[in-house]
C-alpha cells in the first residue's frame, strides 16, 4: 500500500464531482483528500485526489477515471511533486501558553490570522507532514476546531498535467 | 427551421437513423408524444405495458442489429422503471439511448410531483448521462449521446429533458448520422509480441466474448483457429459470435460451460482473449484460473485489462484491427497433439451427456426441448431468454447459425428481460424469434404479452415450467441441504388460459412429440404463442463450477438420491 496523488482536468460543470467521487465508491476505493478548483481555463476544473492503495487500485482508478466523458486528462503525479495543504486551526491561549504557541507559529512559518483575548486562529501551509506536525504540537493546548483543504499538487519542472 | 424542443428530440432521432422507439407516455413527455404523433410516418413508436419492457425492448433491438436502441419514459416512476433495463444494457455493453422527461426547470429540486433525479440515479449504470438545461444544447446533446453510446465499448446513455425545454422553440438544422469515435490502433511492437507468444505456444485457445460478438469477427476467428490449430471457446456473451457448426468451437466455458471448453481453457498454454472481461461467472476462482496459460487480451476498454485477471499482454484499442493484424502475421501451424487432446475432452463430454440422457426417466427433459428447437428453428432465428436454468440450458444446447442471434442478459442477469428483449429483436429484424423462459422469469414481465398481441409480434414463447425457481433451488439442493426456502412457487397459474386472455395462443405439452408439434405450429401461427412445457423440478444445469470454485471442483453429475 502506498499513497499517491491523482490529478485530473475535468469539465467545469454541475455534477462532475459527483461522477468522479461516485466512481471511487462504486469501485470500492477510498479517497484520502480531495480538492477542486477552477484553472487557467474557466471551462475546466482541476481535481486533486490523494488515495492510499496498491498498484491494482492505482491502475484501476486511473483507467476508470479516463472513461468518464467529463474527465479530459488524468495522471498520477510524481512522488517528488510540489504538494501543499492549507490548514486553519483555532486554539485557546492563556498567559502561560501564549509564548509557546507563538514560537511554534514562528518556527513553522505559520501566520496568526485572527486573534482575540482567549483564542487565536492560525494559518499553516505546507506539505501534509508539516501540517500534521503542527497539529501534534497544538494538541496539548486546546484545539477548538480546525479545517484542512486537502492536498493540491503540481509536478516539478516543465512537466504539466496536459503535456505529461 | 424553428421547432419546439419536443420536435427537435424526435427530428434528431430520425436524423440519427432511428426508425423505431419503445416507450410509455406520461405527464412530462406529453410534448414528446405529440411530436411522435406529428412525425409518425417517419418514426414508429411501440407502446409497451411497462417502462421496464420498453428499456429491455430497446436493448433487444440493439443486440439483434448493433443499432442504438431507443426508449422513452416520463419523469419519476417512468424514469425509475427504466433503471433495470439501463443497468442490463450497461453490464453487457449494449448501445442504448434512453430519453426521459422531467418537471420544468422552475420546479426542479422542489420534490415536485413525479420529480426524480434520474441523472443522479443513473450515473453508475450509464456510460454517460445528461440533464439538458437549455434548448440550445438539445440537438447536439442527443447527437453526442449517440456517438458515446456506439463508440469504443458501447453502452447506454440517458438524456433527461425538463418539460420547459420540450416546450421552448429553437432553430433546428438536420445533421448527418454521427460516426463512431475511432479507437487507437495498437503499436506494431505489441502485435509482434502477441504473434511471438502465439507462435511459441503448443495449446492455443481463442476465448471470445461480447466484444467479439459485437464486431462480427466470427468467420475470421474460425479461419484463424484453423490456420494455427487453435480451439475456440466463448464466454456467455460470446455466444452466436461464431457459427456453432465449425469443428473448432467448444462452446461456452465457465460456471455452466461445456466440459470440453472449460477443461481446454484450463489446459491451454496461451489464451487469446477477444472482447471478454473475465467475469467471475466465467473464471471461477481467479487465483486458479488458467494457471498454465499466458493470456493476451484484446479490448477497447483500458480498465478491463488486469481488472479481474492478470494478463501477460494487453492490447488496448481497436480490437478488430488488432485481431486482423495478429491473424495475418501468425504463420500456419499444425498442432495435432493439442487437437487430439481436445477431441478426447469432447468425447468425455459426449459420454457424460449420453449417461445423463440414459439415466433420465422424465417424460420430457430440457435437452429434448432444445433438440426439437434446434431441429425445427428456421435459419437466422433469434433466441432470446430470461434468466435462470432455462437460460443456461439455452447457452449450452442451442446452436447458432449466425451472429446477433442470441439475446440474453449476461452481466446483470435480469429476470424479466426476455419478453421486452424478444419483442425488440423482432421489431428490429422481422426474423423468427423464440423466447425461452421459465415460469419464474416469465412471471416478472408477462404483461408484455399484451404488447406482443397489440403489435402482432409473433414470438414463440417456450416456457420451461418446473413450478420452482430452478436455479436457486439447484443451489439449495447442492449447497444448502435441500432447504428449499421460497423457491417452490405453488402457483396455480394456467398459462394456456393466461395466454388466451391476452389474445395470444397457448398450449401445454409434456412430451417431446407434443412439443415438436406445438413448436412447429407456433412458428407458423403469425401471432404470439405460449408453449407451456412441463419439466421436472429436479432437473439441473450441469456441469457446474461451484461459485468461487476452480476447474478441479467441476460437478458433472449429481446423484439424485
Q: Could you say how many structural domains of chain A there are in total?
A: 2
Give me the count of strands of chain B. 20
Whole-number average pLDDT of chain A?
Answer: 96
The value of Rg of chain A in angstroms is 19 Å
Query: Roughly how many Å apart are the termini of chain B?
Result: 75 Å
Q: Strand share of the residues of chain A?
A: 35-45%
Could you name the CATH topology of the largest domain in chain A? Answer: Alpha-Beta Plaits
Work out the helicity level of chain B. Answer: 40-55%
Number of beta strands of chain A: 9
How does the major sheet of chain A shape up? 5 strands, antiparallel
The H-and-E topology of chain A, N to C, reads as: EHEEHEEHEEHEE
**Overall geometric form of chain B:** globular
User: What structural class do you assign from the helix and strand content of chain B?
Assistant: alpha/beta
Spatial separation of the terminal alpha carbons of chain A: 24 Å
Written overview of the protein:
The complex is a heterodimer of chains A (164) and B (561). By secondary structure, chain A is of the alpha+beta class. Chain A has helices spanning 16-27, 55-66, 98-107, 128-138; strands at 2-11, 33-38, 44-53, 71-76, 82-92, 111-115, 119-126, 143-148, 152-154. Chain A has two domains: 2-76, ACT domain (Alpha-Beta Plaits); 82-152, Alpha-Beta Plaits. Chain A is built from four helices and nine strands, in the order E-H-E-E-H-E-E-H-E-E-H-E-E. In chain A, the strands form two sheets. In chain A, strands 5, 6, 7, 8 and 9 form a five-stranded antiparallel β-sheet that branches. The longest helix of chain A has 12 residues, at 16-27. The radius of gyration of chain A is 19 Å and the shape is elongated. Chain B has 561 residues and is α/β, with parallel strands linked by helices. Chain B folds into three domains: 2-171, Thiamin diphosphate (ThDP)-binding fold, Pyr/PP domains (Rossmann fold), CATH 3.40.50; 188-343, TPP-binding domain (Rossmann fold, 3-Layer(aba) Sandwich); 363-538, Rossmann fold, CATH 3.40.50.970. In chain B, helix 6 links the parallel strand 6 and strand 7. In chain B, helix 3 (51-65) runs parallel beside helix 4, helix 3 (51-65) packs across helix 17 and helix 15 crosses helix 16. The longest helix of chain B is centred in the middle third of the chain and has 24 residues, at 336-359. The mean pLDDT of chain B is 96. The interface between A and B is medium-sized, with 15 and 14 residues.
Amino acid at each position: 500500500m502506498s499513497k499517491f496523488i491523482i490529478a485530473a482536468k475535468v469539465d467545469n460543470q454541475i455534477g462532475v464531482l459527483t461522477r468522479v467521487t461516485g466512481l471511487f465508491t462504486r469501485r470500492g476505493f477510498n479517497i484520502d483528500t480531495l480538492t477542486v478548483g477552477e484553472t487557467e481555463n474557466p471551462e475546466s476544473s482541476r481535481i486533486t485526489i490523494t488515495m492510499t492503495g496498491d498498484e491494482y487500485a492505482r491502475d484501476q482508478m486511473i483507467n476508470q477515471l479516463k472513461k468518464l466523458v467529463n474527465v479530459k486528462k488524468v495522471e498520477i503525479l510524481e512522488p517528488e511533486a510540489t504538494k501543499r495543504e492549507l490548514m486553519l486551526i483555532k486554539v485557546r491561549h492563556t498567559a502561560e501558553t501564549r509564548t509557546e504557541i507563538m514560537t511554534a507559529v514562528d518556527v513553522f512559518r505559520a501566520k496568526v490570522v485572527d486573534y482575540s483575548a482567549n483564542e487565536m486562529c492560525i494559518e499553516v501551509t505546507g506539505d501534509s507532514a508539516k501540517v500534521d506536525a503542527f497539529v501534534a504540537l497544538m494538541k496539548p493546548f486546546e484545539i477548538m476546531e480546525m479545517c484542512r483543504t486537502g492536498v493540491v499538487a503540481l509536478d516539478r519542472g516543465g512537466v504539466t498535467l496536459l503535456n505529461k | 427551421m424553428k421547432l419546439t424542443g419536443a420536435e427537435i428530440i424526435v427530428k434528431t432521432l430520425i436524423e440519427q437513423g432511428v426508425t423505431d422507439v419503445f416507450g410509455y407516455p406520461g405527464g412530462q413527455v406529453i410534448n414528446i408524444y405529440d411530436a411522435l404523433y406529428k412525425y409518425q410516418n417517419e418514426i414508429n413508436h411501440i407502446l409497451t405495458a411497462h417502462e421496464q419492457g420498453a428499456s429491455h425492448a430497446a436493448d433487444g433491438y440493439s443486440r439483434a442489429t448493433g443499432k442504438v436502441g431507443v426508449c422513452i419514459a416520463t419523469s419519476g416512476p417512468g424514469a425509475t422503471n427504466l433503471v433495470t433495463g439501463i443497468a442490463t444494457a450497461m453490464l453487457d455493453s449494449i448501445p442504448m439511448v434512453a430519453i426521459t422527461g422531467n418537471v420544468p426547470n422552475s420546479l426542479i429540486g422542489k420534490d415536485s410531483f413525479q420529480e426524480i433525479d434520474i441523472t443522479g440515479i443513473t450515473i453508475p449504470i450509464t456510460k454517460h448521462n445528461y440533464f439538458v438545461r437549455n434548448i440550445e444544447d438539445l440537438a447536439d446533446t442527443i447527437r453526442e449521446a449517440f456517438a458515446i453510446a456506439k463508440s469504443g465499448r458501447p453502452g447506454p446513455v440517458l438524456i433527461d429533458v425538463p418539460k420547459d425545454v420540450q416546450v421552448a422553440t429553437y432553430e433546428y438544422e438536420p445533421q448527418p448520422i454521427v460516426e463512431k469515435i475511432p479507437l487507437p490502433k495498437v503499436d506494431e511492437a505489441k502485435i509482434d509480441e502477441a504473434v511471438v507468444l502465439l507462435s511459441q505456444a503448443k495449446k492455443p485457445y481463442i476465448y471470445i466474448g461480447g466484444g467479439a460478438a459485437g464486431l462480427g469477427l466470427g468467420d475470421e476467428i474460425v479461419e484463424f483457429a484453423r490456420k494455427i490449430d487453435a480451439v475456440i471457446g466463448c464466454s456467455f456473451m460470446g455466444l452466436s459470435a461464431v457459427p456453432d457448426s465449425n469443428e473448432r468451437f467448444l462452446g461456452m466455458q465457465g460456471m455452466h460451460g461445456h466440459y470440453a471448453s472449460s477443461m481446454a481453457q484450463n489446459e491451454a498454454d496461451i489464451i487469446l482473449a477477444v472482447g471478454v472481461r473475465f467475469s467471475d461467472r466465467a473464471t471461477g476462482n481467479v487465483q486458479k484460473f488458467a494457471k498454465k496459460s499466458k493470456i493476451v487480451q484484446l479490448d477497447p476498454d483500458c480498465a478491463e485489462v488486469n481488472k479481474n485477471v492478470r494478463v501477460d499482454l494487453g492490447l488496448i484499442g481497436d480490437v478488430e484491427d488488432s485481431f486482423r493484424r495478429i491473424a495475418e502475421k501468425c504463420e500456419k501451424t499444425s498442432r495435432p497433439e493439442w487437437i487430439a487432446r481436445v477431441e478426447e475432452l469432447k468425447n468425455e463430454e459426449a459420454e457424460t451427456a449420453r449417461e445423463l440422457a440414459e439415466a433420465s426417466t422424465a417424460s420430457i427433459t430440457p435437452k429434448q426441448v432444445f433438440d426439437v428447437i434446434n431441429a425445427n428453428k428456421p435459419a437466422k432465428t433469434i433466441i432470446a431468454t430470461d434468466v435462470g436454468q432455462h437460460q443456461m440450458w439455452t447457452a449450452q444446447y442451442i446452436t447458432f447459425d449466425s451472429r446477433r442471434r442470441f439475446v440474453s442478459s449476461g452481466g446483470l442477469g435480469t429476470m424479466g428481460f426476455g419478453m421486452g428483449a424478444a419483442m425488440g429483436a423482432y421489431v428490429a429484424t422481422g426474423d423468427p424469434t423464440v423466447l425461452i423462459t421459465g415460469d419464474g422469469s416469465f412471471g416478472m414481465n408477462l404483461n408484455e404479452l399484451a404488447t406482443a398481441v397489440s403489435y402482432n409480434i409473433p414470438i414463440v414463447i417456450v416456457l420451461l415450467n418446473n413450478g420452482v425457481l430452478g436455479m436457486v433451488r439447484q443451489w439449495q439442493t447442492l449447497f444448502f441441504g435441500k432447504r428449499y426456502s421460497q423457491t417452490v412457487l405453488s402457483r396455480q397459474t394456467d398459462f394456456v388460459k393466461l395466454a388466451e386472455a391476452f389474445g395470444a395462443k397457448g398450449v401445454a405439452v409434456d412430451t417431446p412429440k407434443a412439443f415438436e408439434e406445438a413448436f412447429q405450429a407456433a412458428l407458423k401461427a403469425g401471432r404470439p404463442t405460449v408453449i407451456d412445457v412441463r419439466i421436472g423440478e429436479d432437473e439441473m444445469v450441469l456441469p457446474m463450477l461451484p461459485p468461487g470454485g476452480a476447474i478441479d471442483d467441476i460437478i458433472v453429475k449429481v446423484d439424485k438420491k
